[in-house]
Amino acid sequence: MRRVYLDHNATTPLESRVFEAMKPYLMEAFGNASSPHHYGRVAKQALEESRIIIADLIGAKPEEIIFTSGGTEADNLALRGIAYRKRERKGHIITSSIEHDAILSTCNDLEKDGFTITYLPVDSQGRVDPDDARKSIRKDTILISVMYANNETGVIEPIAEISEVAREHGVPFHCDAIQAVGKIALDVRELSTDLLCLSSHKIYGPKGIGALVVRNGIELSPVLTGGHHERGLRAGTENIAAIVGFAHALKIAIEEMDSYQIRVSALRNKLESDLLNGIDQVEIHSAKAKRLPHTTSISFASVEAESILLHLDLKGIAASSGSACTTGEPEPSHVLSAMGISPELAQGSVRISLGRENTEEEVDYTVKVLKDTMNHLRRISSQWNTLKAL
Asked: Are 181 and 209 in contact (CB under 8 A)?
């Protein structure tokens, strides 16, 4: 069966050039970077060289890069690290209503621990208004956290403007940039972030490695304890092979970003146009907003996403109904709900996220399969037949 992978926001395949860079550190150069002997020194050198590479690529300083097991841990370290540092104050945190569950679930835990959380609304396109952040700041606000680009819709948030609001009030600003890095321009100095999260497996690097960028002067309490690793903020032996792969993947992504953007945005635009012209009652979410070039969120009226995805999978096409971390949840997407999308329409929402390897032929095949799927599912849908009869 032919296979078409259209779920690159969930994860990406490991790039062969990245694998080749990792191989020596999986085999002969296997040392622990904390060991004083030759094997440890080789690992330590690779660790610090990778830290320098990543820092240079995003406008940070090497000592500001803290390696973690991935984006979720990085988000947790940012939020809990600030909160635990201010534990006695039980302060106030501002975030948005469309964040990844790594943020929302952490905020929910912090609420139970006595912290107060404000969830900023978004407009119909999924954008946060920086003025809402400004109006929400209180004397006890200890952190503002807003993502750079949404993992479901691809909407790019006004991060520089929100970080300016935070600076005006002396509040640390955290940004989950996991979906944005390597796909759009990212410079921590230009964005003026105090804390910023990255992940490797969204950019053709290995899974299980990410980073938190901590601006010099920002104080955090560690979440994982047990060693002096990573400036004392993240105990545990560093995964050198994955860190090397992460640095290599980010270097490739940024060097090839321009051609990537042109190519995947053309495929995304063709996909959306063909679906709008070929299927009735289709809605492209956030079509008027500035979005990541490879991501589209599409709703098909009167059909449930679960059924759509099942039919796509039977034809060899991999897509998603939203975040991979919330797949299987019975409730409609919290992102689409925050945008004012009705539960009925949100239940029929599919996320397609394109990648480097996708072709125009694969887009044509996907459109054809979706047309056939809609014809079949709507033919047996009482909701669709009622809608047509009106």
From this structure: no
Is residue 91 within 8 Å of 114, Cβ to Cβ? no
Q: Once rounded to an integer, what is the mean pLDDT over residues 291-316?
A: 96
Phi, psi of 296 (to 5 degrees): -140, 140
- The domain locations on the chain are 4-12+257-382, 16-255
Question: What are 193's two structure tokens?
Answer: 């972030």
Check if 107 is active-site. no
Predicted local distance difference test score (pLDDT) of residue 330 = 61
Q: Domain 4-12+257-382, what fold? A: Aspartate Aminotransferase, domain 1 (3.90.1150)
Q: What pLDDT score was predicted for residue 332?
A: 85
- Indicate the average pLDDT of the chain: 94
How many Å apart are CA 331 and CA 348, to the nearest integer?
12
Query: Chain-centre distance of CA 132, in angstroms?
Result: 23
Residue type, 163: S
Contact 367, 303 (CB under 8 A): no
Q: Write the pLDDT tens digit of every residue in 182-193.
A: 999 999 999 999
- Count Cβ atoms below 10 Å from residue 172 Cβ, excluding itself: 24
Query: CA of 377: how far to CAs of 168, 297, 380, in Å?
Result: 53, 19, 6
Compute the distance between CA of residue 1 and CA of residue 80 in angstroms, rounded to an integer: 46
**Angle between helical axes of 240-255 and 257-278 (0-180°, round to 10):** 70
Which SS3 state, helix, strand or coil, does residue 340 take? coil
CB atoms within 10 A of CB 255: 11
- Strands 92-96, 4-5: pairing is unpaired
- Max Cα separation, the chain? 78
d(CA 128, CA 131): 9
DSSP E strand stretches across the chain: 4-5, 65-68, 92-96, 116-120, 141-145, 173-176, 195-199, 210-214, 282-284, 295-300, 317-318, 349-353
Domain boundaries 16-255, corresponding CATH code: 3.40.640.10
Q: Say if CB 239 and CB 209 are below 8 A apart.
A: yes
Distance in Å from the first CA to the final CA of the chain: 40
Catalytic residue among 107, 175, 197, 325: 325
- Separation between Cα atoms, residue 288 and residue 299, nearest integer Å: 15
